[in-house]
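Data availability (excerpt). The following record was deposited with the supplementary files.
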Amino acid sequence: MSNALAIAAVTAALKNLVDRHLDGLDLSALGSVSVGAMALDRVLTGDNEPNQINLFLYQVSANSGWRNSGLASRDGAGQRVSNPPLALDLHYLLTAFGNQELSRDALFGLGMQALHETPMLDRDRLRALLAPPATPFGAFSAESLADQVEWLKITPQYLSAEELSKLWTAAQARFRASMAYQVSVVLIQSEASVRAALPVLRRGPDDRGPRAVAALPPRLRAVENLTLPGLRGGRVGDLLRVDADGAGATTQLVFEHARSGLRQSLPLLADGPRHWRVQLPAADAPDVASAWAPGVYTLRLRTSTPGQPELIGDAVPWMLAPRITLTPVTAAADADVALALDCMPQLLPAQHAGLRLLFGGQELATGSVDTPADGSLPSTVHATVPAAMASAGVHAVALRVEGVDSLPVLLSDGVPQFDPQQSVELT
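Predicted structure:
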């Protein structure tokens, strides 16, 4: 592959190609003739316009055949595993200048003939065109262009009068008859070191290759809360019923917190055909406060069989609501009410900013959050209800975490009602 000087090397090669084509011709009738590679607005024009053939690089485009080669260049850890080439097509404008009658047309034809007779630049020709002192790059070498995989192909492109007019107008130069050419493909590639995989010494036990398993992964159809029927999510301590296909004794229900990546796996307990029960850990279980977090989860079924790869089903969204304990449950009306809410599981630091207190029918911002280092203790959320909202009566209280609300209700003889321990009575 070629280095970053490839674009300049192509321009130099084309310039030298046209220049060497003119060397074998008797152009004494025209006078001195030069070959340049200047921008159109930098070429001298007017009464003293010199005889010159100019090659102007006016556009660079991606090569569609090579643009995805070598991707992806980095693995999941961000380490470089390949050096994908930067594949480019270069677009040039061939223009002739001269101050004598017909001299410009003659030079224009000679330049087009030079590129027509050499539609492809092979490695030997590139080395000859780019050999010192032809390349003006000092200590840098552009000859690596000759070592790239593909040869350079020179293809004429016949632009319309409108396209040529736009080019010359954008260049803010005096119009001259021009011919466009595409040079393809130029491959610029880094020489940075990459991480290479070690050779495979054995393909599994007894060198028999991979073992294919035709079984389908378990499918999670629905999750129902048996502790609070009708609840779309759950809380620590709740009992869930899982409707699943393809589950078995070795299947577990995997809970993954969408924001933090916390992951827990719980076993399935048989509960009839296609139905299973899952018991969430109790709020006072060891380390449950730090091992779980309220918010949005994804649920998957995972079947593990010794000697076989794991089968993992599709993800299903699910919500874990926080459990709160409220202090105080009675206060004076028409005055500021300072509340403290113990939240299980513990809140993550990233969840503090979005916390909201639901007081009756009002939504309020919360204050400070205290989370102890002990993984068995709850987080404590402090909030103040202003006197203007502290009217007399009973107000249900809930805590909203990442859009998931705590549940200020309980079941009494199968009938849901507001939990007096999650309400504030103002008198």
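Summary of structural features: The longest helix spans residues 6-23.
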